[in-house]
Structure formats: C-alpha cells, structure tokens
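haha ok so turns out i had the wrong file open the whole time. this is the CORRECT one, sorry everyone. sequence first:
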Amino acid sequence: MVKKSDRRRRGYTLMEVMLVVAIIGIVSAMATTLFKTSYQFFTQMDARTEIQRDLRTVLDNLDRHLRQASAATVNISQGPGQPPYSQINFLTVDGSTVTYTQTNNTLTMQVGNDHTILTKNLQYIAFSYPETDINTVLSISVTLQKKTYSGRTTALQMAISSVRIMNP
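then structure:
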C-alpha cells in the first residue's frame, strides 16, 4: 500500500516546470544567434573565396594573353557607358584578336569569335602604362566585389599587376 505522502511526490512542481521552460528558452535563443553568426561567416567566406578565385582567373588570363601580344597593337579604351581605360584589345603574335571588356559588373574576354565571361563580380578595372615612353609594360588595376548576407557588400578584393609585353 502506498502512503498518501508518496502520492503527492510523484511528478514535477509548477516551479520546476517553469525553470525548465526558462532554461530551454535561453538555450534556444543562444542557438539561434549562433546559427545566424555561423551563416553570416560562411556566406562571407564563400564570397571571398569566389572573388579571389575570379581575381586569379582574370589576372592569369590577362598575363598570358598580354605576354603574347604585339606591343604596337595594344589599344586601351572604354566601352559605352563604362569607366575610362576599362577595355583593351590587341593582336597576339599568332594573329588572334583579343579583347577584354568591362560591361557593368561583368568582365568578358573575347579571343577571335569566342566570348568568355571571366567574372560577374567586377567593380573596377583599368589598364594603363606606368611609364609613357615604354609601351611594353602595362599596369592592370582590378577591384572585385560580391554581395554577401543581407545585401551587404563586404567581400572586396583589389589587386594591381604589371605585365611585360614580350613582343615589341
């Protein structure tokens, strides 16, 4: 036979249940903040990785093609509605016409009739000669930018590269 005092001790008191609910609420609020912070970090790292990869691709292609260019055929200009010095075209020693053009946030490479989009994260590109009397050294300034979480544009990568044109 069960004593009357033992019957009352079964289960939880209202105070114990309220304490557990409060603890679960605090833990879930902390978990939500942790998940949000982790997501923001992942999104920003993903954006940085993408623009660094794009920047390497852009500079590698430009370097490879400009080294094969004939210096006398290099023409720096700008596309319609684009920043100054944002377009370059030239002939390579094998006779191919190569053009790099900025159109809004896209950098396009055209070799002959083949068009290739190198990046859609272009903020700015400029081609220039660091020394006006030497047409075999070209300077390239590139800025890439990608939107991350909540529409912020915090992922940013800038680079300046000099390329020697090997064929005067």
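Residues 28-164 form one domain.
again sry for the mixup
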